[in-house]
UniProtKB/TrEMBL annotation, chain A:
<dbReference type="InterPro" id="IPR048940">
    <property type="entry name" value="ATG5_HBR"/>
</dbReference>
<dbReference type="InterPro" id="IPR042527">
    <property type="entry name" value="Atg5_UblA_dom_sf"/>
</dbReference>
<dbReference type="InterPro" id="IPR042526">
    <property type="entry name" value="Atg5_HR"/>
</dbReference>
<feature type="domain" description="Autophagy protein ATG5 UblA">
    <location>
        <begin position="13"/>
        <end position="122"/>
    </location>
</feature>
<feature type="domain" description="Autophagy protein ATG5 UblB">
    <location>
        <begin position="212"/>
        <end position="311"/>
    </location>
</feature>
<dbReference type="Pfam" id="PF20637">
    <property type="entry name" value="ATG5_HBR"/>
</dbReference>
<protein>
    <recommendedName>
        <fullName>Autophagy protein 5</fullName>
    </recommendedName>
</protein>
<dbReference type="GO" id="GO:0034045">
    <property type="term" value="C:phagophore assembly site membrane"/>
</dbReference>
<keyword id="KW-0813">Transport</keyword>
TrEMBL record, chain B:
<dbReference type="GO" id="GO:0005829">
    <property type="term" value="C:cytosol"/>
</dbReference>
<dbReference type="GO" id="GO:0000045">
    <property type="term" value="P:autophagosome assembly"/>
</dbReference>
<keyword id="KW-0808">Transferase</keyword>
<keyword id="KW-0812">Transmembrane</keyword>
<dbReference type="Pfam" id="PF03987">
    <property type="entry name" value="Autophagy_act_C"/>
</dbReference>
<protein>
    <recommendedName>
        <fullName>Ubiquitin-like-conjugating enzyme ATG10</fullName>
    </recommendedName>
</protein>
<keyword id="KW-1133">Transmembrane helix</keyword>
<dbReference type="GO" id="GO:0032446">
    <property type="term" value="P:protein modification by small protein conjugation"/>
</dbReference>
<feature type="transmembrane region" description="Helical">
    <location>
        <begin position="187"/>
        <end position="209"/>
    </location>
</feature>
Amino acid sequence: MQGAIDETVAERLWDGQVPLRISVHPADAAALGVHSKSLSLYLSVHRFSYLTLIATDVRRFFADADGGNARLGEVDDADIWFECKGEPLKWHYPVGLLADMTTAANAAIPIAPLPWHVTVRFLNFPADKLLRGHSESMLSMTSDAFMSMIKEADFMRNGNIKKVMGLSKQDQTQLWESFAAHRFRDFWNVNAQLVAGGSEGVNGGGSYPRFVPMRVYVAGCAVVQEPVSPVDGESDHEYTLGEILSNILPRYYSSIPGGQVSRRSPNGTGEVTTFPAAVPILHGIEVPPDTPLVWLSRNCSYPDNFLHVVLRF
Amino acid sequence: MVEQTAAVGTLSQQQFTCEAASLVEKAKALGEPWTLVEAADQPAYLKRLVSVRSAVRPATDELPVSDGVVDVEEEPNDGATLHSDPLSEITLEVHAIYSKTWQCPVLYFSAWSANTGTPVSLDGLKNAVRDGLPDLDLTARTAYHMPFIAQQDHPVLGTPFYSIHPCETAMLMAEMLSNTDAADGRYLLLWLSLVGTIFHPIALVHSSYFN
């Protein structure tokens, strides 16, 4: 197994962006006295970024564009949220994951029309659906959420959090700061210490992680996070993404090309029906199912060290 | 492909399910509202609703105790008084959910107004209880420098719940199990009595559960 990072792949993914068209929700525009209702902000956002990192700029843009709308200028950053087609967007998910989930939810259109149209909201924060920040803390909450994922990934790979905790204080800080400032080299100088190689102490520094940090998103279902081993301990066979998905989600995924899966139909009749197998999407791309999971994890994980795979039907 | 390794202080999913079922049986006998929530395609989790007013005595008036049972005093039939008393309104919902990643149960909780159903913040919950649930501290950090309590998406429902970070659970449980006689089959009870201390004076389980 090659332990090195494929920098070309990592850097291409790092620079990936989603073009966004952002407009103010009509109800909020009316309530806040925003005159330029038809105005949209066009913004190219890194797929790895978070909505909280653009929220302040978005609010300022609309406040300024509206002739210095004072009420908009006073909105607390913790009250800003985004939605798409009436669904609140989770700020602690990377933008690329949100875009993939939105695309996957529109079965009729395999590739969603770009720019991706998102509505910004300044009122009525849906505290029953989105994690609530408090004033002045959205950035630190985002960095906490990001670092929590990195530590959880470390735990999944190694069975402990020693690699992250073994980083110098400066390196730990640099992980988030270089990420937020989009500095590829600085980020990977630290991140490579976490993702390269395998778990320490197992087989004298074995080269495979214990489990692969991966979450799978299926519309209408709870997020799937299974402890999956990337290699067959006996035959040394490296499991492919397709093999893993058909193992953990047999009702949605089949590794047979053009294969079908059976599950109860969602209309409540309890009738078992066959469906075409889902397609795994990562970073807006259909992932070839024969990609070894360990390679995918090392080179194509989000900066939070997780693979966030969306199933499209 | 999907495998588990047992480490000290951890609990297998099978053990969790088994101990959860016996805890619910015991709670039923004790007349306490622990239930097992089972959804299609999802592992079951433990749930308990606590009416904050009946679980703690309000700061302002001492409730009469008769036959060892705390009587919940009837509110005067006065809408204004009822509305101004935060204790009359808050429901605390506690879930114990098994995490395959951390190989231990994780505590999730939320609080809401029983009258309106709107979410109550951590501060709102603290304010409703005398001495303010000091352990519910959003600034506290674990040994791994993670927020001890933070809002997270509920792993089954997908909606925001507060949760206690599980990164120290196995370590604490290993110590607790080694210091407890007859700990066999009581991981979940011991864990609930440990993690439940954050809600003191509200108790999630009490000594009768161990009989």
